[in-house]
Amino acid sequence: MIKSVLRLAQFSRLQENVLIDHRVTSAFARLSIITSRNIYTTHLCSKEIRSKNEKIVVGNSKYGLIEGETMPETININQQEHLFPDTDTPNRLFNGVPYKELHIINIKSTPNNTIMTLTNFNGKVLLLHTAGIEGFKNAKKGTNLAAQQAAITLGNRILEYGVNTVRIRVQGIGPGRMSSIKGFQMMGLNIVSITDDTRVSWNPPRPRKQRRI
């Protein structure tokens, strides 16, 4: 519609024949200054307006965010001190405990289940909890809701065990990666660092040849 009005504004004879009111003529005079290059007309604008007016339903997708879960916020690196590890990181104190002696929460997230363990700095397993132990069965074990609920239960047990400051080590690409970390945050655990230790194959097996039909 905007482009059609701009086309009408380019023809002076059509303005004289159609436009009688002085206010409309002045409006067309102002429109003649505007070109189509100055107007950004794409579908993105309509999508933004539609998303503001419509109610956004969260948690329907299998790998989407659930209620109470948010995306990580951006951090201003200039305002953060000791954001990245250095040579002094293993000896830095967190609540009176050196970084190298902190307890570690291992999260193994698979498409079928989410397994979480609490170990000491030597690797000795102290607590273990999974989405299946939480009571979820079959395909529900692999959802982000099951991972968050299992993380809340394990976080409560960790606090009862007497551990408050932990490190997190994540492995796997299942849907319970972010939601399990969110569950530990909801329980009030002081998370010092998050390490992604997902295994990557640099020499994967040869794929099957394309099927002939």
If you had to describe this structure to a student in words, what would you say it looks like?
- The chain has two domains: 1-54, no CATH class; 92-196, Ribosomal protein S11/S14 (Nucleotidyltransferase, domain 5), CATH 3.30.420.80.
- The chain starts with a helix and ends in a 17-residue tail after the last strand.
- 19% of the residues are buried.
- The radius of gyration is 29 Å and the shape is globular.
- Helix 6 runs parallel beside helix 7 (177-186).
- Mean pLDDT is 76; it is low at 17-21 and 34-63.
- It is an alpha/beta fold and 213 residues long.
- It has helices at residues 2-9, 12-18, 22-31, 43-53, 131-134, 144-161, 177-186; strands at residues 93-94, 97-98, 103-109, 114-119, 125-130, 165-171, 190-196.
- It holds the Pfam family Ribosomal_S11.
- GO terms for molecular function: structural constituent of ribosome.
- It comes from Atta cephalotes (Leafcutter ant).
- One of its GO terms (cellular component) is ribosome.
